[in-house]
From TrEMBL:
Keyword Glycosyltransferase assigned: no
Protein name, entry field: Septum formation
Domain DUF4190: 71-122
Region (Disordered): 1-62
């Protein structure tokens, strides 16, 4: 009879001999990436900032200072002509659009001022045309002083300042003055203002005597004469004018 060692009921059963290791497992394969997607674990592209609004990488850098055409346009508008200034302003706007630079406000202001000048000139011409048509309808004809002749009746006569033309009307129409005598100096150099005035006073006074009546004795006598050498070379005549300052004439005085 063999003696046996008593068994321990709490003893773990003996570990069986280790089985040979199986073949090593294959490394995990990643899922294939979707088209256009970078696979996991691949290199990552460096981050980029989002593009700014309105940027143009090909636009030229802005110039310093104010566009010269814009400045020239504004000055030309005041000193020369609004039309020329407007042309300069358009050139300035085109250049500023291609090459950013200050001066756009000046160019726009030039165009506005030039437009106002055109409107102002057009208004002046319109007034002149209206006046000429009105005078023509009323039988009024503006006559250059050097073209006056005896018997011309003048609608309005101020007698102050330089006079270059006068509104003549028919002597039966209401008028204020009448040319009663014209005298032409002999050829020669300009004798001077004092001598011309003295001769004009003498000639016009003598020519008035035949027209002296109770109606004309209180009227004023004016004479128009060449005031300098330039006017003397153009015309050497003097015109004697009889003026009724506070009355309206409706008949000729010299006929």
């Amino acid at each position: 009879m063999h003696n046996q060692v008593p068994s321990d009921p709490f003893q773990q059963p003996a570990t069986p001999a280790a089985a040979p290791p199986p073949f090593p497992p294959a490394p995990p394969q990643p899922f294939p990436p979707a088209p256009g997607q970078q696979p996991f674990g691949g290199p990552v592209a460096p981050g980029q900032y989002p593009p700014g609004f309105g940027g143009d990488p090909f636009a030229p850098p802005p110039k310093e200072g104010t566009n010269g055409w814009a400045i020239a346009g504004l000055l030309t508008t005041f000193l020369v002509s609004g039309l020329v200034g407007a042309i300069f302003a358009v050139i300035a706007l085109r250049k500023i659009k291609r090459q950013p630079q200050r001066g756009r406000g000046l160019a726009i202001a030039t165009l506005i001022i030039a437009g106002l000048q055109v409107l102002f000139i057009a208004a002046i011409f319109a007034v002149i045309v209206v006046d000429e048509r009105r005078d023509a309808a009323a039988g009024i004809d503006d006559v250059v002083v050097t073209d006056l002749k005896a018997g011309d009746c003048i609608r309005d006569f101020d007698g102050t300042g330089a006079i270059y033309d006068l509104p003549t009307v028919a002597c039966t129409d209401p008028h204020q003055a009448e040319v009663y005598h014209v005298y032409t100096f002999p050829e020669g150099s300009y004798p001077g203002t004092a001598k011309v005035e003295a001769e004009s006073d003498k000639r016009c006074g003598a020519a008035f005597e035949p027209y002296l009546t109770p109606q004309t004795e209180n009227m004023d006598i004016y004479y128009l004469y060449p005031r300098d050498d330039s006017e003397w070379r153009q015309d050497r005549s003097i015109s004697c004018v009889l003026v009724a300052p506070s009355a309206t004439l409706t008949a000729p005085l010299t006929k």
